[in-house]
Give the backbone structure.
Amino acid sequence: MTSPYPPRRRSGSDYSRTPGRVPPSPGYASSELSTSTISERQNPVVAAARSFTGMFAACFAPPESDNSRSLGDSEEFKSSSTASNGSRAGSRAGSQRGRNSNGGMNISSYNIVQRKEPGIVKFTMEEIFQVTRNFSPSFKIGQGGFGAVYKAKLLDGTVVAVKRAKKSLYEKHLGVEFQSEIQTLSKVEHLNLVKLYGYLDQGDERIIVVEYVPNGTLREHLDCIHGSVLDLAARLDVAIDVAHAITYLHMYIDHPIIHRDIKSSNILLTENFRAKVADFGFARQAADSDSGMTHVSTQVKGTAGYLDPEYLKTYQLTEKSDVYSFGVLLVELVTGRRPIEPKFELKERITAKWAMKRFMEDDAISVLDPRLDQTAANTLALHKILELALQCLAPRRQNRPSMKRCAEILWSIRKDFREQLSASNFRSFSTSSQRSSSLRE
Ligand SMILES: Nc1ncnc2c1ncn2[C@@H]1O[C@H](COP(=O)(O)OP(=O)(O)OP(=O)(O)O)[C@@H](O)[C@H]1O
């Protein structure tokens, strides 16, 4: 099949290997972990660091309440939300620093709170207060490990999410990490990545202003908290969007990035159910393969249930750690379960381990999300997705496919899925027309 990607920028053999079938990991890494992050368990300072570098990441944070979302979705935002979603380039007014003589805000100073492209806006506290109406609780749309999230509208109509770090987590030395995260984010731009608009790093305030993505997180949709079931076609599209985003990070930027916190609560959905990967708090520049490096050695960060066992053991980080997390995400997509389900009996507690075991025993259908129909198309796709997940979850990183390969495999799964769907539709159409013609006779 033709690759959807341009030629890669980097050299190195890591990506070219064709994946082979491998037995599931005996440990699945996270089975003994609580739902806290590894870094938090290891070191309380790192726990604080996580909250800065892991801007959006808290493990298994309960979904935000309907209450907070409906408040954030107040009338004020409705028209502009659509505008911003529909045309990202719709309003590109420049940033003007308007201020009255005594340094306060005046009417025209609203102009300062505009998005400036290209480049990242360095916001002032006054600007942030202005767009969030002094962090009004009615603008609050969520709460994560990093802090509170507010929905706000810039003067040019751009609707943004304003993420304010918890003050209790502030430590001076973390300013460096915050800045390096901003630097990382400012270098990436992809349809399937949440875009950074600006930030504030002043005194004890750390604030990040990013693209607002209106349709909740993937986890919320798998939990059906928005009222409807995400069908398998939509789940496949999400998997492909995420694979594209990570492939871009791994292969198509000058200094490849490892995301390190791929999980369903970090995947936001648009109104059209396009997925956007958020939260670069743990992102790390990958080893430079051109200079012969195969990995970076670093403290383990990430979320329990999604962590690569080899990285956990060796502290060696490579792009394949994201591939492992992506494997966990694939299992989550087809089962609907969270990676760790503490309330289930022991053998079902680690979802990936349970699902892979069932798959190896030729009983894949028993892990299909009960909210999905057991149609021929769903069953076929389920098998193929689990097969790919098995490869991604290989205990040794060299046996895992590259993200680019994952995307290609998913493309072919989606193609077969669609063909199967239209074949079934055709079959049921011919059966029903045969039935009605025999009734007429
Ligand atoms: N860019 C965004 N657009 C729209 N809503 C967002 C955006 N970012 C965050 N949110 C909302 O705010 C909530 C909290 O986000 P945040 O990223 O801080 O935490 P989280 O991902 O839920 O948990 P954690 O950061 O601890 O992993 C999210 O669940 C989501 O509903």
Notes: The first strand starts at residue 121 and ends at 122. The chain is about 40% helix and 10% strand.
